TrEMBL record:
<dbReference type="GO" id="GO:0004788">
    <property type="term" value="F:thiamine diphosphokinase activity"/>
</dbReference>
<dbReference type="InterPro" id="IPR006282">
    <property type="entry name" value="Thi_PPkinase"/>
</dbReference>
<dbReference type="GO" id="GO:0009229">
    <property type="term" value="P:thiamine diphosphate biosynthetic process"/>
</dbReference>
<dbReference type="InterPro" id="IPR036371">
    <property type="entry name" value="TPK_B1-bd_sf"/>
</dbReference>
<dbReference type="InterPro" id="IPR007373">
    <property type="entry name" value="Thiamin_PyroPKinase_B1-bd"/>
</dbReference>
<feature type="domain" description="Thiamin pyrophosphokinase thiamin-binding">
    <location>
        <begin position="151"/>
        <end position="216"/>
    </location>
</feature>
<keyword id="KW-0547">Nucleotide-binding</keyword>
<dbReference type="GO" id="GO:0006772">
    <property type="term" value="P:thiamine metabolic process"/>
</dbReference>
<dbReference type="InterPro" id="IPR007371">
    <property type="entry name" value="TPK_catalytic"/>
</dbReference>
<keyword id="KW-0067">ATP-binding</keyword>
<keyword id="KW-0418">Kinase</keyword>
<protein>
    <recommendedName>
        <fullName>Thiamine diphosphokinase</fullName>
        <ecNumber>2.7.6.2</ecNumber>
    </recommendedName>
</protein>
<dbReference type="GO" id="GO:0005524">
    <property type="term" value="F:ATP binding"/>
</dbReference>
<dbReference type="GO" id="GO:0016301">
    <property type="term" value="F:kinase activity"/>
</dbReference>
<dbReference type="GO" id="GO:0030975">
    <property type="term" value="F:thiamine binding"/>
</dbReference>
<dbReference type="InterPro" id="IPR053149">
    <property type="entry name" value="TPK"/>
</dbReference>
<dbReference type="InterPro" id="IPR036759">
    <property type="entry name" value="TPK_catalytic_sf"/>
</dbReference>
Length: 220
């Protein structure tokens, strides 16, 4: 499966336990701010480096610029309208043929500033990311988060987690869960809602459906 991997500047102790496995694959890597320095120091080559790089020292920034092809280096001003992670997503939409990729995996997006966490989750639902939304997954030490536009989906316990929670957003219409420990039929609400602590049954797949709004599925 071909993926784009994004490493943001979140704390290393919140990376998934198998993060080293992602580093050794041959998929596309985008290092966001301090994430670029981390990737290069850990032997990942041919990366794209994006951000204002305000968390790097002068020496670290020089190291990144020296190792990255200028065509794949983009430095923004600290005073900007978008976070560094959003700049990476915009790079994917503008510079890459995202249709060729099965997934967009984001690491280092949680575990530090809470405003950045909310931004990394909720701003994905802006119209400009609609085409890539269902390709995005956010990974950290305990969780994997997937994002969905309206439709029908079959979820499998591919991450071997105990719990599967759902966050319904943006005027959800007819949200249904079938095949889980706790099923749900045709839930609609103008108020965002969390359905926490659901579970897979004997590793059978879970079906979800909704007609409008958005959903986050949280494996934990």
């Amino acid at each position: 499966m071909k993926s784009i991997n994004i490493l943001a500047g979140g704390p290393e102790n919140n990376f998934p336990k198998n993060f080293a496995d992602f580093l050794t694959d041959e998929n596309e890597w985008i290092g966001v701010d301090a994430g670029a320095f981390y990737l290069l120091k850990h032997g990942v080559k041919d990366i794209t480096a994006i951000g204002d790089f305000d968390s790097l020292t002068r020496e670290e920034l020089f190291f990144v610029k020296d190792k990255v092809d200028p065509k794949h280096f983009s430095q923004a001003k600290p005073e900007k309208d978008f976070t560094d992670t959003e700049l990476a997503l915009r790079w994917i939409e503008e510079k890459l043929d995202y249709r060729k990729y099965d997934s967009i995996n984001i690491f280092g997006a949680t575990g530090s500033r809470l405003d950045h966490e909310f931004n990394n989750f909720l701003n994905l639902f802006l119209p400009e990311y609609k085409n890539i939304l269902d390709k995005v997954e956010i990974f950290d030490l305990e969780n994997v988060v997937s994002f969905f536009n309206p439709g029908d989906y079959l979820l499998e316990n591919k991450y071997k987690k105990k719990y599967l929670g759902f966050v319904v957003l943006n005027n959800i219409v007819n949200f249904s869960i079938h095949g889980a420990k706790y099923d749900l039929s045709n839930f609609s609400s103008k108020i965002d809602r969390v359905f926490a602590s659901n579970e897979f049954l004997d590793n059978q797949n879970i079906e979800i459906h909704f007609d409008a709004g958005n959903v986050m599925a949280i494996y934990s």
